Amino acid sequence: MLQTIFNMTDNITLRCFLAFLTALCLCLCCGNKTIAFLHHHQSKGQPIREDGPQSHLLTKKGTPTMGGLLILGGGILSSLLWCDLSNIFVWLCILVLVIYGGTGFADDYVKVKKQTPNAMTAKMKLLLQFATAFFVVWVISINTAEDLRYTLTFPYFKNLSLNLLWFYIPFGMFVIAGASNAVNLTDGLDGLASGLMIIALSVFVFICYITGSYWASTFQMPFILPCSEVAVFISAIIGGCLGFLWFNAPKAKVFMGDTGSLALGALLGTIAVMCKHEILLAIVGGVFVMETISVMIQVIYFKKTGGKRFFRMAPIHHHFEQLGWNETCVVVRFWIIGFILAVIGAASLLTL
Length: 352
Description:
The protein is mainly α and 352 residues long. Helix content is 69%, strand content 2%.
């Protein structure tokens, strides 16, 4: 009997499912109480941008933020139950969620306390993000085989790779911090960021599982043993995101806030660095990239033209709202785009 239980818990596929289910149940069971607690301590809810869509001032006013605590709490607790805690990559994932989540929590707290959409300065956020990213990329590198340590791989071209040498560390830092801010920019509509995270992370479950198993040679992918355990961790986070989505679906009872979006984006970037699929992240997370680019275009165009706007509003999901699309329509269509990009990204596994 004990041997049977041991064999079951040693099965990564089974533990992925159990981690997912545990996090999902934790979020669903604790969701209402957590929301009630947040609502009690946030009488006015998350501040709504006055220059944003006017409908948001009516439909979103008073909704509490910091709902990312549900995802992080459920995901981390589940991973502690089902992951191999001797795996350094698992602890790095937890560290990323805690530090980036803590940064986002501090930002959300000030926003709610002072009722302002702008809390921490961009410089302060970036300093914390890049400092953490440097440590994480450095630890990942020293725990990766020497021949792969600073290697950049290219999806669809299995025999093509580039050794970036020490330039890989700043590159990895950019991937992690960039992904963190990209997801943060995307988190502006009910269910948008959490749904897209579920889609993107689902692809990386398979990527990490294959990269850390004997299947890596079959798919001509780099073999990085610790990544197999990261698949279990990702499954827990997917369960947390799905549980959160139950309460964040329109009309949202709670917002993810910077607490969730900064942490989840950083985790996505960290996973891509761990399994050496940074370029694939830009494909699978193409909607996040699109949102970020839209903000960059808007800012540059605004400065170059003396106050004119390229989009009616940025990030781009608000542009479509201003064109007359209702919120649910924007979210579902962005999900569809995210799913298509995920399929395109997953197809890189089939290129032998």
